[in-house]
Write a structure and sequence with these properties.
Strand content: under 5%
Shape: globular
Radius of gyration: 21 Å
Order of helices and strands: HHHHHHHHHHHHHHH
Number of helices: 15
Distance between the termini: 10 Å
Number of strands: 0
Length: 326
C-alpha cells in the first residue's frame, strides 16, 4: 500500500507540474523553438551524456575494486541499466535492480554492492554542493544566497562527517567496547561490516583521488550538457557555464522530490522558473529544459534497454521480480 501511495503521489506531483509549466505555452511556438536547434548540438549533448555515464561507471568500479575485479564494460552496462530503469519504472527501482544484478554478474555480496551505491549517493550530494557553492561564489548574479551560505556549509559538513564515519567503520566495529556491545547483535554487526566494505576504495591515496576526480568530472560534464543546450538556444549571452552549474543544482533538486518515472514535469517546471530569474521567457525556458531532458532520456533509455535484453531480461520480468521488494 505504501509503495502504491508513493507511486500515485509521484504521478500527481509530476502531472500538476506539467500542467502549470505548459498551461500558457503555445504549442506551435514551442515546436518552432525546437526546430531552431541544430542537430550538431544534439550530437555534442549525446557525447557529454555518454562521457558522464562512463565517469559514473568508472567511479563505481573504483569503489568496487577492493571487493573484487570488475571490468569497466560490465560496470558501464549495469550503470546504464540502472539509469534506464529509473526512467521507466517508479520509485527509482533501477537502483535496486542495479545492485542485485551487480551482485550476481560481478559475483559479489549483494549487500556490499548496495553499500557502494549508498556511498555513490553520498558522494553525489557532497560533490554537487561543492560545485554549486563554487559557482555561487564566482558568479553572484541572479540568485542571491547571502545569509544562506552557512546552511550549505553545515549540510556539507554533515555529509563529510557521514563519509568519515563510513571510512573508519571497520576500526569502530573492531574497538573492544563496541565489539562487546555487538555480541548481543551479531546480525547487525555483520550488516554494518558489509556496508563498511563499500567505502574501502578510499583506503588508498590513488583510488581515493580517482573516485573524487571521477565524481567531480561527471557533474561538470552534466553541467557541460546544460551549457551545450544554452548555446543551442542562443542563451549564452545571458547564461554562462557557471550559471549552467546553478541550473544543474536546480535540476538535481527537482528530481529529488516524488515524480513519475523519468522525472517529467518536475524537471521542466524547475528549470523554466530558474531561467526566468535571468530574464529567459517561459516558452524558451521550457523548450530548453524539455529538449535537453528528452535527448538524455531517449539516449540512456535506449542503450539501457539494449543491455537489459542482452542480459536475458525484459522490463516486464524485472518489474515482476522486484515490485514486491519496494
Amino acid at each position: 500500500m505504501k509503495a502504491k501511495l508513493s507511486i500515485f503521489a509521484g504521478l500527481a506531483v509530476s502531472g500538476i507540474l506539467v500542467y502549470f509549466a505548459f498551461r500558457d505555452i503555445d504549442l506551435k511556438n514551442l515546436i518552432s523553438l525546437y526546430s531552431s536547434v541544430s542537430a550538431v548540438y544534439l550530437l555534442f549533448s549525446g557525447c557529454a551524456v555518454l562521457f558522464e555515464t562512463y565517469m559514473r561507471a568508472l567511479r563505481w568500479r573504483l569503489l568496487l575494486l577492493p571487493l573484487g575485479r570488475a571490468g569497466i564494460w560490465s560496470v558501464f552496462k549495469l550503470e546504464t541499466i540502472g539509469l534506464a530503469l529509473n526512467n521507466l519504472l517508479p520509485l527509482r527501482l533501477g537502483e535496486l535492480v542495479r545492485g542485485t544484478l551487480g551482485g550476481t554478474i560481478l559475483n559479489l555480496p549483494i549487500m556490499t554492492v548496495f553499500s557502494t551505491i549508498l556511498v555513490e549517493r553520498a558522494l553525489d550530494l557532497i560533490t554537487l554542493f561543492i560545485i554549486f557553492l563554487a559557482a555561487v561564489m564566482l558568479d553572484r548574479t541572479g540568485w542571491d544566497f547571502r545569509g544562506f551560505g552557512v546552511y550549505f556549509w553545515i549540510m556539507l559538513g554533515f555529509f563529510a562527517a557521514v563519509m568519515v564515519v563510513l571510512i573508519f567503520m571497520d576500526e569502530f566495529l573492531s574497538h573492544k567496547n563496541v565489539s562487546n556491545l555487538f555480541l548481543k547483535f551479531p546480525r547487525s554487526e555483520k550488516v554494518l561490516r558489509k556496508i563498511a566494505l563499500g567505502i574501502r576504495g578510499f583506503r588508498g591515496f590513488k583510488s581515493s583521488a580517482g573516485i573524487i576526480a571521477a565524481g567531480f568530472a561527471l557533474w561538470l560534464l552534466d553541467a557541460l550538457n546544460y551549457y551545450i543546450f544554452i548555446r543551442a538556444f542562443g542563451l549564452h549571452n545571458v547564461v554562462g557555464y557557471l550559471k549552467s552549474i546553478k541550473l544543474l543544482f536546480a535540476g538535481a533538486l527537482s528530481v529529488s522530490i516524488p515524480s513519475m518515472p523519468g522525472y517529467f514535469g518536475n524537471f521542466e517546471f524547475s528549470l523554466a522558473k530558474a531561467l526566468g530569474i535571468w530574464g529567459v521567457p517561459q516558452a524558451q525556458g521550457l523548450a530548453y529544459a524539455s529538449l535537453m531532458h528528452l535527448t538524455a532520456y531517449v539516449l540512456v533509455t535506449v542503450i539501457g534497454l539494449v543491455f537489459i535484453y542482452q542480459a536475458g531480461h525484459s522490463i516486464g520480468s524485472l518489474w515482476k521480480q522486484f515490485k514486491d521488494k519496494i
